[in-house]
Amino acid sequence: MLIVLTGIDGSGKSTAARALVDAAQADGENALLLSNHAGRRSMSVLAERLGIRWPRHLADAVETTLRVVNVLMSHARASRVDGLVVMDRHLHCQLALRAAKGLRRGRLLPWLIASLPAPDAVVHLDVEPALAHERIMARGTDSETLADLEDLRDAYSSMPEYPGFVQLDADCPPAEVVAKLKRIVNKRILRAETAVAV
């Protein structure tokens, strides 16, 4: 069972992914968490320290390279796991970032998404940008402007892949987000088991 989580920064993806895998492991199930980061946080922190703003195309080139490498490695690891695999971020996230920056989708990322094993569900954690901004400021490890978060949320919703995402309202405490995510995953597992039985 492969579950992919997407959403703007501050939506709670990493927290929910970790909690979901921990809960599955606590129940004696085989579960693996894979993170497909692109180095955005590190680049953001470095840019802030240097007092610069990375050129859009340079930032995208670095982020896309790291994201693609991580996603390919994650799928290779996932193929060897018999159980639940949760991917925190995927190539969809890079497409959304490109759209938010006014860059073209290109051909590579959509081709890779179509070529790689399809997730059993792409769960999109939707959150109001203002709340996401508060969470980011509270953790104090990176920074995002409210305007950037708003642009990214709009970018996700404009993607052709977006209607196929499972929507999860993340404007609530982390425990509630995790509970909602568990229900989504359990439904997918039940559906898969029913399909096998038939």
From TrEMBL:
Pfam hit, one: Thymidylate_kin
GO cellular component, one term: cytoplasm
Family in the record: Belongs to the thymidylate kinase family.
Identification of the protein by name: Thymidylate kinase
GO molecular function list: ATP binding; dTMP kinase activity; nucleoside diphosphate kinase activity
Domain of life where this protein originates: Bacteria
UniProt entry tagged with the keyword Nucleotide-binding: yes
